[in-house]
Design brief:
By secondary structure, the protein is mostly beta strands. Helices cover about 15% and strands about 45% of the residues. The protein has 4 helices and 21 strands. The longest helix has 17 residues.
Length: about 325
């Protein structure tokens, strides 16, 4: 009797384990530090502030040494002093001086830890003849948007979209009446528009390593030349929108030595329709609490064990038999 009972208990336990929701294994993220060169700031005729950022794709508490390489070309004839920083992610800046006026400089951020060195992307800035210079040249800017998910591939000032659709933005920059220096483009996306991911941004049709939300340093745009930045975003999930239409206004900020600060805008009109007939939302393996819960088999195990060890098995079986009759 005992052997049969414990076999039953074992089979119930096996079934209970089988009903457990499958749990994904902890993700193993492989890779080193991510280093990003951000736009230079406080640019004058003989000085500037260089900016960078680093992060790790895993939890890291060790120490890092960060610095910048800089020079008049990508050979980077100079390096700043190394700066000790800790943490899993951080921004850092360093001031450089003794620069030549009216000169284009290249620079990139660098990080060293565990005897490995990682570099950020190359960026440029242009020193003015004296302080912040505003010449006769100007910068024409335009921003357009497209809904890739709709299949209508026309760039427009505004588009209609549904939740969780892929949206593209294009910013066109043209130097008018002369060169335009220190052009920096930044787009802080509004709520419910999420920057898709680094690596999908292009500059003049070529992949660009940079994040539009942190700022992309175009550098100098020569007179009459046009530069185009394209990047992607995703609209938020349905639950983030009220039924009907919601207009997301997206404003990019463009700064340059000659034209100061300019803005370019585009709109995404998100439509959320009422869904009729949906009365429940599936949030697990099944909506049936009998087949989808681990606690029912566990309860049966405990209940059967209690019946056996308290000697109530025969009385329980008699009660069941009476109910069946």
């Amino acid at each position: 009797m005992k052997a049969i009972f414990f076999k039953i208990i074992f089979y119930i336990f096996v079934c209970a384990v089988a009903l457990l929701p499958l749990q994904p294994a902890a993700a193993q993220i492989i890779g080193g530090a991510y280093v990003q060169t951000n736009a230079a700031t406080n640019i004058y005729s003989n000085q500037a502030t260089l900016n960078g950022y680093f992060s790790f794709p895993y939890y890291y508490t060790g120490t890092n040494y960060v610095w910048f390489q800089w020079g008049t070309d990508t050979n980077y004839q100079n390096s700043t002093s190394q700066q000790l920083m800790s943490g899993n992610s951080n921004s850092f800046s360093q001031y450089i001086s003794n620069l030549n006026p009216n000169t284009t400089y290249h620079f990139r951020a660098a990080l060293q830890n565990n005897n490995a060195i990682t570099y950020g992307q190359d960026m440029t800035f242009y020193t003015n003849s004296s302080g912040n210079y505003y010449g006769n040249s100007s910068l024409y800017v335009r921003k357009q948007v497209i809904n890739y998910s709709s299949g209508i591939l026309n760039w427009q000032a505004s588009v209609n979209a549904n939740p969780t659709e892929l949206i593209g933005f294009a910013i066109t920059l043209q130097a008018v009446n002369g060169d335009v220096h220190n052009v920096i483009v930044r787009d802080i996306l509004p709520e419910n528009l999420t920057y898709f991911r680094a690596g999908t941004t292009t500059l003049d049709g070529q992949n660009y390593v940079g994040d539009i939300t942190s700022g992309i340093n175009i550098g100098t745009i020569m007179a009459g030349n046009t530069r185009t930045i394209i990047y992607q975003a995703i609209t938020g999930p349905s639950q983030n929108f009220a039924y009907g239409t919601t207009t997301l206004s997206n404003n990019a900020t463009i700064t340059s030595s000659e034209s100061g600060t300019q803005t370019a805008s585009a709109q995404v009109i998100v439509n959320r329709s009422q869904v009729y007939g949906a009365t429940s939302i599936n949030t697990g393996i099944t909506n049936n609490p009998v087949s989808g819960s681990f606690f029912l088999p566990l309860f049966l195990i405990i209940f059967m064990s209690w019946l056996y060890f308290t000697g109530r098995v025969s009385r329980f079986s008699n009660w069941i038999g009476a109910k069946i009759k």
